[in-house]
Amino acid sequence: MKYFGTDGFRGRANEGLNVEHAFKIGRYVGWYYGMRQNRKARIVVGKDTRRSSYMFESALIAGLVASGADAYMLHVIPTPGVAFETVDGRFDCGIMISASHNPYTDNGIKLVNGDGYKMDEDVLEQIEDYIDDKMEVPLATGDAIGCTVDYMQGRNRYIAHLISSANFSLQGVKVGLDCANGSASSVAKPVFDALGADVRVINNAPNGFNINVDCGSTHIERLQRHVVEQGLDVGFAYDGDADRCIAVDERGHVVDGDLILYACGKYLNKHGRLSGGTIVPTVMSNFGLFKAFDIAKLSYVTTDVGDKNVYACMREHGYSLGGEQSGHIIFGDIETTGDGIMTSLRLMEVLRAERETLSEIVRPVKLYPQVLDNIRVSDKQAAMEAESTKTAVAEAERFLEGNGRVLVRASGTEPLVRVLAEAPDNDLCKQANQIVIDALAPFRV
After folding, report:
1. b/e sequence 227-264, b meaning 16+ C-beta within 10 Å
2. Contact 163, 191 (CB under 8 A)
3. How many Å apart are CA 247 and CA 423, to the nearest integer?
4. pTM of the shown model
5. In angstroms, what is the C-alpha Rg of the chain?
6. Phi, psi for 300 (deg, rounded to 5)
7. pLDDT in tens, 3-42
């Protein structure tokens, strides 16, 4: 697609993604759902805390109501909150304004259909055609013009949903939360407070510019220090739109998405709640995780990178747990997308039920060292398809002599080629990566 990638339409605010794009997306979506059902469409809209989110919200809302849709404004809320409320409130579709873990200078627009899943590709293609002026959409007039609704109760219902999903008390448990100065800032603490936890929060004062800045799941060091200095039992870090969660154990060690999949998968399987006894990680998951699955007699099916691919596999085969090393975990029996706060609650359920610390729960997993290099390139597809790149990957694999692997993939959201090596030690990883990085030199910017 021209505009929509694996995680929506994303780019630098008013450069790659501009206010006119947002207006046109609103115009088409508002018209499409109204025309399709011969009634006013009902669309729910949420956003994260970056400064440009307010501008894009105004443009989207203007487009929606100009096409005759009623726009319900959730304001600042996690992306999974939009997906939940789209289904819970029986909306025609949901729109989230966020660039997730990207810098505040970026932004994005994600669309979900009425079932809470990522928008169907045929609809996205139609939106792209409208953006490129390949078709026209009529303006609503008179009483057909839509209205806006301040829909704060939708966010409150989402918070209540998270609380009600936990059938345990956290009384006496000391929990650290890093809200990344993003969407979790107004949601995570009330949830843990309601469950009785002793909550210590950092990075929950968004100002429009500090989202993801040296904090959250992509800068876990802040939470690690916080957990150790405060003597906490566990810590959870979210990204900008709170669809990811990375944990920190009581010793200050990082528990990433792979380890969370192991902890939750083993627990759910033990209690007969893991559909098919199978977990769905991606090809980027650590080799040590796969070995731990084998020892625990847990089946697994890998997919390409991206929560969209993970969930597609889960839906097709009826699996109930999948996710990514980045902390994007999907519990298919209770949600349609990754939810960082829900992930932290499910991990707390494991700790409370097993009566063990987080470090004890994940101890059986012996992770291989991994080194990931993000190489900025002028044309990521050309870089990926170049024979020199393919030859270099094969050479790096031979260098590791079967004791590791090298994965190369194009980012779905940024002009990057990601080069990841996995081997028994960091030096081998770096040397293997360098072989591929050298081959990418003609494409680097």
Report:
1. bbeeebbbbbbbbbbbbbbbbbbbebebbbbbbbbbbb
2. yes
3. 24
4. 0.88
5. 22
6. -145, 150
7. 998 789 999 999 999 999 999 999 999 999 999 888 999 9
**Topology, domain 4-156:** Alpha-D-Glucose-1,6-Bisphosphate; Chain A, domain 3 (3.40.120)
The CATH classification of domain 370-443, taken from the options 1.10.1270.20, 3.30.310.50, 1.20.1050.10, 3.40.50.300: 3.30.310.50
Give the Cα separation of 443 and 436 in Å (integer): 12
Q: Which residues are catalytic?
A: 100
Distance CA 383, CA 395 (A): 17
**Nearest in space to 175 (alpha carbons), one of 157, 189, 187:** 189
Torsion of CA 291, 297, 301, 302, to 10 degrees: -20
> Among residues 78, 61, 54, which one has the least CA distance to residue 23?
61
Place of tokens 């920190």: 248
Q: What is the pLDDT of residues 297-313, one digit of tens each?
A: 999 999 988 888 998 99
Q: How far is CA 155 from CA 246, 340, 342, in A?
A: 23, 16, 15
Sheet holding 70-76, edge to edge: 4-5, 8-12, 106-113, 93-97, 42-47, 70-76, 148-150
